[in-house]
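User: Teach me something about this protein's shape.
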Amino acid sequence: MTAAIPSSWDRTVDVLVLGSGAAGLSAAVAAHDGGAETLVLEKAPLIGGTAGVSGGIIWIPLNRHMAAAGISDSREEALEYIRRLTLGSEPDPALLETYVDRAHEVAAYLEDNTPLRLMVSSSFTDYYADLPGGKPEGGRSLESEPFDARAQLGADAPKVRTSPHLAWLTLDEGAKALIGGDVPADLAAQRERDDVRVIGSALVASLYRGLIDRGVEVVTGARADELVRDDDGAIVGAVVEQGGARRAIGARRGVVIATGGFEWNPELVKAFIGEPLEPMSPPHNEGDGLRMAMEAGAALGNMRAFWGQPALLDPDAEFEGERMIEMGGARAIPGVVVVNRHGERFVNEAVSYQDFPKAVAAFDPVRVEHPNHDHWMVYDQRLKDSAAILPSMPAGEPAPDWVHRGETIRELAEDAGIDPDGLEATIARWNEHAAAGADPDFGRGSAWYEAFMTGGPTPAVLQPVEQGPFYAMRMFHGALGTNGGPRITADGEVRNLRGGVIEGLYAAGNAAACPLGDSYPGGGATLGPALTFGFIAGSHAARRGAAS
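Assistant: First, the predicted structure itself:
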């Protein structure tokens, strides 16, 4: 429920920002620069939220780095491309235009007014670059330059999250290393020793340094529990739990909810997503912002959508006290086949991480089941000897005991609990298609994303599964975050379920209904809107009531 105004506030500021991920930090920069006394509260003990463990890339059409690199872009192209991908599922079509018009301005402002420095991630083209408006030459995906946290943050550096999923390389460096580029073998280790941040941690650390320079306080271990509203229904603060005590924090101009998604809340996941997820974000994204917004009467959007990531589990790995679900990018390696419990393929294994989970969720009305909820990566000894499936499973090393194996396909199926007849038939059919150089079943080798870093798809990815022993690894329905929540206006204000807006309440990032719906135009399609609409919300909140 929302709380009534207390008899006295424990503290009062102009703009209260809840959450310290990309959206929250961007909102705080904008609010401060708009003349508002600003405070950031973070539930977790570390700063950065989901952005801090992410790849840190942001998808920004029309950005100035594209022009500097000689890559053309236009408003019309960007909108044509986005609309082709959303298929009308976006919560508010007008916000697509807001994003295209404002995102590049926000990125430029943050570069010009904080330590954030961006660069074109040259290996990243648009994920569907062969569709109208797509950019096969790339340029819309930007990432942070490496950030020397030891020099720039000093004793504050350990407060900023780093990723448990990705090496200490820029995404561009990681992509080049993946395809055999010239990247020093010890670069990641050297960066880690010197505390030179990259990817999401560099993005967060740069913006955090910008807030330090402004004197904006970021308080960790402070969980917002209730919004406070006045007699007119406007949001004027929040009740916060900190150190075992409850404090009332007033906000004269507005509250920005940037608390992340609800992927760590099983009840909310069941209620809205409708299928089990394995969260890969920090274990603090429990839907606090969503709950508070709902209690305030927010209109909702995108509630069944989430940022998917096909995932694997190393049972020996942990992340902040929870089992660590790891990215399952190995599914796209030539010679990997993904099957369900019936031993049947159900998707092009190498489509984007946002699209793959949509096939996992499919319902079979004849069998009356979700046949793909249980699914496995299947591969042979040739691939095991030549590719790293997980960081803990380097090429050529013996597979851990928890990996299923068999000297024959049938033995493998029996060990993994897959239908043996189905798997034998599927692998035989796959090998026939590999020999013919075409996959008529699911178009492997024909989707742009399969080789978006190397200029487009090729049938060369069709490699047989024929050299025993054979292996299978259970895959999981991973989620980098949810992307549903309060619907917002072009100013970042939360829409009221009964019409109009909830005065004084804003939302951005994974705590809001993403303006792009569940589409994913390219690397950074989560963080681009988060930074942009966080900034828009902070700016508008700073202006609200400023004259009074």
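Now, about its shape. The longest helix spans residues 93-113. The longest strand covers residues 306-319. If you'd like, I can walk through any region in more detail.
User: That's plenty for now, thanks!
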